[in-house]
Amino acid sequence: MSDANALKDQGNKAFAAKRYDEAIDLFTKAIALDPSNHVLYSNRSAAKAGKKLWPDALEDAEQCIKVNPTWAKGYARKGAALHGAQRWEEAIAAYEEGIAIEDSAALQKGLKEVKDAAAAAVGNDDGVTGIAKMFADPNLFGKLAGNPRTAHLLADQNFVNQLKFIQANPSLAGNSFNDPRMISVLGALMGVDLQAGTRPEGSDEMPPGFSSPPPTSQPGPSSPPPKPAASEPPKPKAREPEPEPEPEDEESKEKKRLKTEADAEKAKGAAAYKAKDFEAAEQAFSKAWEISPTDVTYLTNLAATYFEKGDYDKCIETCEKAVEEGRSLRADYKLIAKALGRIGTAYSRKDELDNAIKYFSKSLTEHRTPDILNKLRDAEKLKEERAKQAYIDPELSAKAREEGNALFKAGDFAGSVKSYTESIKRDPNDPRGYNNRAAAYNKLAALPEALKDVETAIKVDPKFVKAYIRKSTVLFAMREYTKAMEAAQEGVAADTEKQHTREIEQQMEKVARALYEQQSGESDEQTLERAMRDPEVASIMSDPVMQQILQQAQQNPAALQDHMKNPIVAKKIQKLLAAGIIKTRR
């Protein structure tokens, strides 16, 4: 870091010559080479203060404190920047915080100066503030009109305008008080006669310090007005703090040397970690922390080696220490979040999902990252899945289903839905629970829910014929006759043992009658318009191959039978038949 020190020395010389821009540039270059050197931030803060760039000076002072919170002079920098920005209370707090670390003469001097400046600022503002408050009274002119000493003054529109001007600009009121009428106004506003002790009633004599009133039209000799008494000179503003660069003391040099040595060990550990030599990495990171316990990345890296070695308890312990030390060192919140996230990952590997979720959530409150967010969601999902699996009990599922059947027969359809839901939770792989709940939903006219349940039942067991029949029934209730017919036809295909043939045929006949009644009252245009609302029908009708087949069928109806030999085409033709687009003669 000799280059950084050389730049620092050059910056100090430029600062001494008041070449502040040059000093700022040199200190900035030095910081780029040695960002852990708190003295560099302190000196750059001083240079920025020299240019009266108070917000920038404050930013560097705070960074100086962040790098080395035990260095009292950093708080002096912060106090000086806040002093310059006239943030008195914050400046006082900064100096006092520094004094708590090291009660130095420089800090005491800075504290006294900022307190003096704050007092001077208050003193300079008192008069203006008092006048502003009096003239800001919304009942100003009412008070003047009700006072016999001032009521007649309101007849002079120029004087009224002068009062309004003072209301709007109290800081410019000084010259206006050469007019003796203003004394009467102030007296009326304060509720006293300011001239009572200096003149008899009815006298035109003015109290000392004020000029005589303007000349009137009455004849008579005039005398020169007395000179106004000298007003009290304003309190001088407190001198702004003069910045100066800080020399690097022996203690700082030693800390810097140790940090450099620790960083070298950290680099060794990183190389060993990359080579998967975790024993060497562990030793290097541990040594880095022992040399300079000021950087929690040494601990988080050490925890990573324990994690890779499978020692999750040690990983958790080290990360917890990193969080504790990091908070005391005011480490970057991202480092705290990283340590908390690693604790969560270690608990995941230990299969302790509650703790994993806890620490992933804590990490996200410190700093939100997609990686930890995904880990949290995965852990929550796995916990939910396990809870569902632990709840499964086929015997209790059957019992709940029987309870639902009894309630269904008694006409308590809402109660049966609750029992069937419990049956599904106890055994989600049994299609009967979904199918029975669909029947209850159908009775409650909750048709979308019923349709969703029968589709789930079919997904769970594609050979469960009753689900296809129930689906056709639900679609029939929804007046989706074409789809109801398709569901029944799917039931025929699923009923390989022909145990539900009669039930399916009855359903298909019922749907066919509804289709016929629907289509018989429609014109061809109405049928086409209704059918085209079905996306599948619209897709078939836009298929160039199907368009050609339909054109052939119009010219030669027998050709349609040949096309029916193709299963894919046959299915599409059946769809168009059911929709009423292709009509057969009866």
UniProtKB/TrEMBL annotation:
Primary residence: cytoplasm
InterPro entries listed in its UniProt record: STI1/HOP_DP, STI1_HS-bd, TPR-like_helical_dom_sf, TPR_rpt
Residue stretches of biased makeup (Pro residues): 210-233
Molecular function via GO: ATPase inhibitor activity; Hsp90 protein binding
Pfam families named in the record: STI1-HOP_DP (PF17830), TPR_1 (PF00515), TPR_11 (PF13414), TPR_12 (PF13424)
Keywords: Cytoplasm, Repeat, TPR repeat
Domain of life of the source: Eukaryota
Region (Disordered): 196-264
One GO term describing the cellular component: cytoplasm
Ranges for domain STI1: 137-176, 534-573
Compartmental location: Cytoplasm
TPR repeat intervals: 4-37, 262-295, 337-370, 397-430, 431-464
Assembly and oligomerization: Part of a larger complex that includes HSP70, HSP90, and immunophilins.
Full protein name: STI1 domain-containing protein
Originating organism: Rhizoctonia solani
Lineage: Eukaryota, Fungi, Dikarya, Basidiomycota, Agaricomycotina
